[in-house]
Each structure stands twice: as C-alpha cells, then as structure tokens.
Amino acid sequence: MKKNEFEKITIEIFNQYYNYNIGEFNSKSGKTSFWGITKELNNRRQNVVFLYLDNFNDMDISLYDEVIKIIVIDSKNPITDIEKIKETVEGERLIIVNKDNNELLYHSFGVEETVAQIQSVLNYREKLKEEKARAKKPVITISIIAINVVMYIITILLSGNILGSILESDIRVLIVLGAKVNELIAQGQYYRLITCAFLHGGLIHLLVNMYALYVLGPLVETVYGKIKYLVIYFSAALVSSVFSYLFSESVSIGASGAIFGLLGAILVFAFKRRDKVGKGMVKNVLSVIAMNVFIGVALPNIDNFGHLGGLVGGLLISGILLLV
C-alpha cells in the first residue's frame, strides 16, 4: 500500500523524534493492510494506524495490544462524516485530522500524548506550506518594481515642479541621480551603468517597463530561482549599459535593457526545454523580441543598443546559469 504525503511526514517525525518504527497492519479481511507506527510502551506495544473515511472501520484491532486510529479526512468531508466516524468506532482510541487544513478535529480520552505528537506534525506541515507559498511569490520582481517606483517618486520630488514632472522627468535630476552619461562614466562614475536602469523619463515610460517586468519577472524568478534571477537581471542591466556606452552618445535611462535580458532568459529556457514546453513557446518569445525591436527602430529616443545589450546579456548569463 502506497504511503501518501501526510503518512510519510508523520512516520519520519515519529521515527526521528518519538522513537516509533514503521508498521503494517492487517484488515479484517486480511486482503489489505494499513500503514502505521509502533513502539514498546510500558511493556505493551502501542500502535498508531493511518485510516481514511472509506476504511476507518476495516482494521482488525483484536490482533494488537493497543491501537490508536488516526483517521485522516480532507476539506470535502462534512461534519456529518466526522459524527458518523465517532459513532461507528465508539469506545476506541481515536484521533481525527483534516490533512488539507492541518487541523486536529477530534480526539478521544487517553490519547493526549499522541495528540501532542500529531500536533507537532501538523505544525511542521503548516510551516512547509508557508515556505512553499513564500517561494512562489515573486518577491524579487515586486522588490525591483518597488525600487523603480520609489526612484521615480524621488525624481519628481527633486524636480521642484512636481505637477510638471509627473509625465516627463527633469533630465538634470536624472543625471544627478545616476543616468548613463558617457562623459561622466569615462571620468570613473561606473555606478551609472547600474543606477540608470532604475530611472525613468516619465510616467508612461515607467508604466510600460513595470508592466513588462510584472509579466516577465515572475516567470524568470520561478524558472531560475531568486538568486539566479537577480544575477540575470543585474547582468543584463550592466551589459545593456555597456552597449549603450560603447555605441550611443545619448543620455540613457530605464529598465528596458534588463527586461530584454529577461526575454533572453525565457528564450534560453524555452529552447533548452522545448521538448517539454513545446516549440511554440520559442516562436512566441522570438515574436515578442522581434516586435519590440521593431518598435525600438520605429519610435524616436529609444536606446536600441541598450536593448540589444540587455538581450545579449540575458542570453549569455542565463545560458551559463542553466549549466550550473
């Protein structure tokens, strides 16, 4: 009989911390068996058995010294099912657990020690659930968006003309805050190669880039993990700025170079896993890149060299990271 996740974790914890051993127990018919845990206690063998709504009364308890039934239900089972269990096994030692909610629903008299031990299992499962939930949240993406928004607010406040600078940022303020200016970088202000990626020239510029980051970031963060995601993002931002420095004399700002790096990272992943995600994903990413390149060429004041550098940086670093 195959053990489920709840049984596996309970058996591991009871074995490691409470000196129980794994056991297999017979049904009344003898045709099936149930997983459980067992140990010597006061010259008697205490047996804790996992049962479910469809088999909670099928175990032959007469074959064993002392049996505590842990009946595992889920959120689909109504209160009437719990009452039915309690009536059917009246007089037996019983614990009822909701595995979905990690909740102890009922226990009979005389099983308090085992109840405390089961509660430790439920607490551990709840902690695992919270850790998984945190891991799924795009914390890095949200943090990067927040930094960009804060820097935009600072840009507005420093401009002096708050209403006038909401739609279009003051270029002088952007330079002070760290825009890419070739002459200043040549003088040794290399930090501008990164700081420029967190500055934006206006509200529309900010909204477009943050929306793209909101769409692409969580995917890269999930696929590569948070640390590698940070490496990809900052590497793409840096390579984007280097390309812009080498091939463009214009003042440059914006997160679009790093965002092109995320597109590159998605393309590398889609190509590497094309047997699983399908070739269509590769085509979709290429079409998005092509569309953005076209927009960059068609519209004025777009740092296409920065976009190209970000894409190259994203492709290279993500390719390396997938091999690590």
TrEMBL record:
Main location (coarse class): membrane
Name this polypeptide is given: Rhomboid family intramembrane serine protease
Family in the record: Belongs to the peptidase S54 family.
InterPro entries in the cross-refs: Peptidase_S54_rhomboid_dom, Rhomboid-like_sf, Rhomboid_protease_S54
Gene Ontology molecular function: peptidase activity
Organism expressing this protein natively: Clostridium aestuarii
One BP annotation, GO: proteolysis
Membrane topology (UniProt): Multi-pass membrane protein
Keywords: Hydrolase, Membrane, Protease, Transmembrane, Transmembrane helix
Keyword Membrane: yes
Stretches that traverse the bilayer: 139-163, 190-217, 229-247, 253-270, 282-299, 305-323
Pfam families xref list: Rhomboid
Subcellular localization, as worded in the UniProt entry: Membrane
Segments forming domain Peptidase S54 rhomboid: 188-322
